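Quick illustration, no need to memorize.
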Amino acid sequence: MPRKILVATTSLGMPGSTGRRSSRDYGFELLDAAGSLHPDLVCLPEEFAVADRPSGQRGDGAEPIPGPTFDTLAAKARQYQTYVVAGLLERRADQLINTACMIDRRGHLVGQYDKIHPTIDEVASGIVPGDTVKVFETDFGRLGVAICYDIGWPAVWDELGALGAELVVWPSAYGGGFPLQTYAWRNFYHVVSAVWSFHSRIIDVTGQIVASTSRFTGLASAEIDLDKEVFHTDRNAAKLLEMQTRLGNRIALNPLTEEHVFTLQSNDPTLSVAEIVREFELEPFRAYHKRAERIQDEARPMVVAG
């Protein structure tokens, strides 16, 4: 059946630039506002609790996990029965770690991802790089995390796809822009950014932005379907009208002309995309490309060693 979840994301609106309440308190306010939506997932930015501090002083605000900020996040996750992904600056033993915590609906720590690619200035300030790409299991699907400067390493994003991520959360200091849309497209997973600046976004599997924060609101939300599947038009397009005729509003089709693809979702809780694929003998995009690669490899001339 469809796996439709409500995702909420937040932005801090340039913390420290207005002299308003601390970024930590504002992050908690945003989480409370998101909680009123009854979401399945709420995302907070990178190192949100120290984002309003000058760069040279952020280390002074680092906390252990568990610790005061984590404990408040866990309590709110439990209160609102939602998963929370939040970027924190952790003091772990004698090290500083730029990390993202995933907290489940009961307020328990599911796991942490440590930023693999901190900036040069971060390393100079004592932040220790992580070394492992991670995907976490939730009650709605598989969720991966990348942080800020990780945006510059496509291998991180491709490994998240290879590990089966269906949604990737990107806590960051800056907006990121178009590259996030390309990573969503190239791996066919959803991407959710949560940033210090103005534009945190929810991006679907074809790279289209479906919701965004702005200069005027630090909270945005959207329903996404983790069963949304992408298909190439080759050999599939001829079946679209029959599908629309027989299934009507039980399905949602979104054809993209220039890309020669379409997406398929089920609006019927008794009907899965997998069942539709079988009934109409559809071939998903990934399966089609794998089949093409096999045919191409078989057609290549054998190289005979001299």
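The CA atoms of residues 298 and 304 lie 15 Å apart.
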